[in-house]
Amino acid sequence: AKDPVRVLVTGAAGQIGYALVPMIARGIMLGPDQPVILHMLDIPPAVESLNGVKMELQDAAFPLLKGIVATTDVAEACKDVNIAVMVGGFPRKEGMERKDVMSKNVSIYKAQASALEQYAAKDVKVLVVANPANTNALILKEFAPSIPEKNITCLTRLDHNRALGQIAERLEVPVSSVKNVIIWGNHSSSQYPDVNHAVVEGPDGEKSVRSTVSDDAWLNGEFIKVVQQRGAAIIKARKLSSALSAASSACDHIRDWVLGTPEGTFVSMGVYSDGSYNTPPGIIFSYPVICKNGDWSIVQGLSIDEFSREKLVATAAELVEEKEVAYSCISE
Ligand code: NAI
């Protein structure tokens, strides 16, 4: 039998946490033959609720779940973890300035970066979910210099999956027959959902999504807007932000990263920019990636038309600006 993998979920008493921990315990994230030990971190005001989640995990009798650490102590939470899913953060509240939210999250991610660096496994793989996801991941990277930068990522897979879902609905095909959409840039409404390389599997093989949809006005307008604004639409409908879809997409992100993407398929991940596609280096930017042997690499050589270029530039500019705001919070 395999040794258990230790998986940290921060903000585990929250909405996404509640949807995510049973998925991990069921093997959705790391596979049906991989035992896990769940580490759950939250803050003191949520401790009772956190213990309730722990009780439910025990009650569900998950065969793969070999242990549970539920704590408000960051060091204990990070001890020897192999995977860290960072869902905890400070939410934007009504009337708050963006900079104030940034400042709270910068201090949280700075502290948790140090704890991961000190206590986690040396090859820990980190996925930041909490918003602003790209910039929280960047702060984490800056303050955990001994963790390889390749091991620090943020979640844009939910946006990627949303784009697949919209295309599948439009074409009235199963979502599993659509692949290779791309989310470029920030996990925010400036993201660019790009269908120019996407394909749909049909009875006569693969065809491009653009030629199959054959409605450029929809693809260049409504489609992009729906994906960019989907988070807000969920909040409006549920009065709560996306949780089951965020949890499921976080599992997709880690599963593909650890176990590899299928041949011929790429997915979107927020990773530390190396300047690929003329994007600014030094930010966490979402790119198309393939994963193999536990490593991701950016898919190279895709054509970028003028329409796409403008959108890449805009989302990159927003990330550069977020980085400046975040850095101004550090120095304060
Ligand atoms: P939530 O408010 O239900 O849960 C957040 C939890 O984090 C709470 O239990 C809170 O006590 C905890 N927390 C706060 N500060 C913490 C700290 N310093 N250490 C550990 N835990 C801490 O929020 P929800 O709905 O679960 O969302 C979590 C985050 O994920 C939010 O920032 C949200 O904006 C983001 N999100 C990101 C998505 C993505 O695709 N990247 C999609 C959906 C949500």
How would you describe this structure to a colleague?
The relative contact order is 0.13. This protein has 332 residues and is of the alpha/beta class. The chain has helices at 15-25, 47-59, 74-78, 98-119, 133-142, 157-171, 209-213, 216-220, 222-228, 230-238, 244-259, 306-330, and strands at 5-10, 36-41, 65-71, 83-86, 125-128, 152-154, 178-179, 182-184, 192-194, 199-202, 205-208, 267-272, 284-292, 295-298. It is globular. The strands form four sheets. The chain has a six-stranded parallel beta sheet with strand order 3-2-1-4-5-6. α5 packs across α12. Bound molecules: 1,4-dihydronicotinamide adenine dinucleotide. 1,4-dihydronicotinamide adenine dinucleotide binds at residues 10-11, 13-17, 41-43, 46, 87-91, 108, 129-131, 133, 155, 158, 187, 241-243, 246.
In short:
The protein is 43% helix and 20% strand. It starts with a strand and ends with a helix. The chain is α/β, with parallel strands linked by helices and 332 residues long.
